[in-house]
Design goal:
With about 400 residues, the chain is of the alpha+beta class. Helix content is about 30%, strand content about 25%. About 45% of the residues are buried. The chain binds flavin-adenine dinucleotide (FAD).
Length: about 400
Amino acid sequence: MSDRRLSCVIAGGGPGGMVLGYLLARSGASVTVLEEHRDFDRDFRGDSLHPYTLELFWRLGLVDELLALPHHRARFFRFNTPAGAITTADYGKLPTRFNYVALMPQARFLDFLAAELARSAAPVRTGCKVSDLCYDETGKVTGIVYRDSAGTHRLTADLVVAADGRFSKVRRAAGMEAVSLGACTDLLWFRLPKQDSDPPDADVDLFFGRNHYLALLAGPAGWQIGYSLPKGGYPAAREAGVSPIRDLLAERIPWLADRAHLLETFSQTTLLSVDIARLRRWWRPGLLLLGDAAHVISPVGGNGILMAIQDAVTAANHLAPALRGPGPVPDAVLAAVQAEREPAIRAVQAQQVRTEQRVATARETGRPITPPGLLRLVTLLPGVRRRAANANAYGPHPPVLDTGLLCRDHRA
Ligand SMILES: Cc1cc2nc3c(=O)[nH]c(=O)nc-3n(C[C@H](O)[C@H](O)[C@H](O)COP(=O)(O)OP(=O)(O)OC[C@H]3O[C@@H](n4cnc5c(N)ncnc54)[C@H](O)[C@@H]3O)c2cc1C
């Protein structure tokens, strides 16, 4: 076992951990991000970079390079029902240069952040799986235990941040339990190729069928499609095979019907078990949890990455000054991060729970899954689509990065 002291060690190199690591490195803190996987290649993990995120990267002087990577600019969010399409959000109406959601493969986004962290002298350590926490005699967290190909190691730090996702190992090691708020849906994800003849304005679209819905996401390389299942419905769906999915595709998205046969087996799909959950307390002395480790967001609103990044911005605003001071990060600083972010998370999750309940009620009563009846009329009112886009683009209570904390040039 080796032992080395750092100001901050972050478990997990997802969007939350990487953005926090980068911001702390730019603030001059000594920080290390440990990621269990050897690379960032991951599929179907959410690819949405919201206007908030793009504006953040603009403030950091990184947006041009980020947007030089392949991505699709989504302007609309639409519900497509048998009675026609309802545009619920129009990002094009937002008063920002970044008036779209950039759909960029998450792996490329994380590769980009890893390269920036390496330039900031805080390279991400991949292939390092955090397995436990270290404590002092008072019970305060003083570091982590991790494993890599060379063995088991210990890192001590003024602060441990758990950004290791929905199945957080650190959360379990700390004996903290997230309370589930209930989800009734699972999603099967798969891809189909794009063709030049595809509708140019298909962006982020939901297509409602009788018992299932399809989520269609544009991407630089093809279409990503989610097929909803009742929670726990995977074995039955697998038994039924891909035909019902192909049939719904052909019925609800006719311009994709010519490619439905490319979905041949279930092995081309990935199951996402949807969850909505949160911790009562996001911290204990010496430890802060953020992103999915503190609160699991359903992918239905497409804002899990945004919430994790906003947690990271709030955490950086509070932690960067605290890590400059002598000694450990005071509990009050950790509590302040939760106090600032929790109202936004509660608001987002409340909306997601309402959506889940709507779907559950439709299933129980045998009615088709559809958006609320008045939605079509409401979205025709002036300003409604812009306001909906604004709410999704920035989330409730978006934190503003204190750029004064960035003392280090990002290319130093
Ligand atoms: C299938 C799927 C589809 C989704 N779709 C969307 C979407 O369209 N839009 C959207 O915004 N959100 C979506 N989400 C949610 C979004 O991915 C998460 O909310 C977001 O990634 C949370 O970021 P995070 O940094 O908190 O955690 P994560 O992205 O989960 O990152 C956690 C990281 O920690 C690493 N890790 C885990 N355990 C350890 C350990 N013991 N030691 C070291 N490292 C560890 C993991 O490998 C991972 O890299 C989706 C999620 C899933 C699962």
